[in-house]
Amino acid sequence: MAAFTVAAFRTAVVVVLRQRITSSVLQLAKKQQLISAQRAVFTSAFIRRAADNSKHSAESSSQQSNEPESESSQSHSSYADQSGEHSEDYETEEQLQLRILTSALEFVPSHGWSVEAIAEGAETLGLSTAAAGMFNNGAGDLVLHFVSQCNSKLSEHLEEQHKLVQLGQADKKKTDEFLRDALQVRLKMLIPYIEKWPQAMGILLLPQNIPESLKYLTSMVDDIWFYAGDKSTDINWYTRRAMLAGIYNTSELVMVQDSSPDFQDTWAFLQNRIQDAMKVAHTAKQAKSTGEAVAQGLMGAAVTLKNIAGIGHHR
């Protein structure tokens, strides 16, 4: 009887706990749906507002000039619906966010990497400053957008240089020279925001931004090594990229503290670190070859000694 009572009590407790957990989960789900719905309505309102502004601007332009617009000057916001017909003055949420963030970069020198800069950027596009509420990560979204933009510019630059070499219009650079120039091009993109960049570096180190920050860093060094002609498939693939990422980060730290004309100290530091890295790589390669030769020599000596001493000889 006692055993039955204990079992019944346990069952009752489990049932109550399940009910409470289910109730909590349902409340949480409803709350999340409400937040998502509010954010969707909020975003849709701004997209419609942006579309209206674009439409009014287009109408004003057409009244001032009767010349037909070229295909290249048409709004980037057109899209094809399910019927295949194009509808003008439509912009996705992602496109609108990118436009706001790009516009906000103009205000970073005065407002820093902040929600205020995003709000100013939205206002220049004819939107309410409340549009900054579209960005859940706030200043983090702005910094990551800038980093992504810089990486894209660097990739385009490296691609152009690569094509010139293939066409015979430019000489192929040595690896150390290529790495130095690529990192210098990327670091120079920070100059317009150099006074505010320490703040950006701090934002990138926040837990929620570290995954994206590392993704962009590894993507950047991978692009550089790719255009440098790296074809390694062993552990060197990882060590080379880790090395280059470390040089970039340390050069970045030097740059934000550099008061020399045109950042001469930073470029000298970068040059020295690249040279040191190349020397270490060469030394490591030599050491590996030497170590293998020494090991083979020792093995040969051991076998010879074994044969002379008769070790392991079966009588």
Would you tell me the structural class of the helices and strands?
A: mainly alpha
Count of individual beta strands? 2
Number of helices: 10
What would the average pLDDT be, to the nearest integer?
76
Distance between the termini: 81 Å
**Spans where pLDDT lies below 50 across 5 or more residues:** 13-17, 28-47, 64-87, 286-315
Largest sheet descriptor: 2 strands, antiparallel
Order of helices and strands: HEEHHHHHHHHH
Q: Radius of gyration, rounded?
A: 31 Å
How large a portion of the residues is in β-strands, by DSSP E? under 5%
Helix content: over 70%
User: Which term fits the overall shape?
Assistant: globular
Strand order of the largest sheet: 1-2
Question: Could you characterize the architecture of this molecule?
Answer:
The protein is 71% helix and 1% strand. It is built from ten helices and two strands. The protein has a two-stranded antiparallel sheet with strand order 1-2. The longest helix is centred in the first third of the chain and has 63 residues, at 2-64. The model is unreliable at 13-17, 28-47, 64-87 and 286-315 (pLDDT under 50).
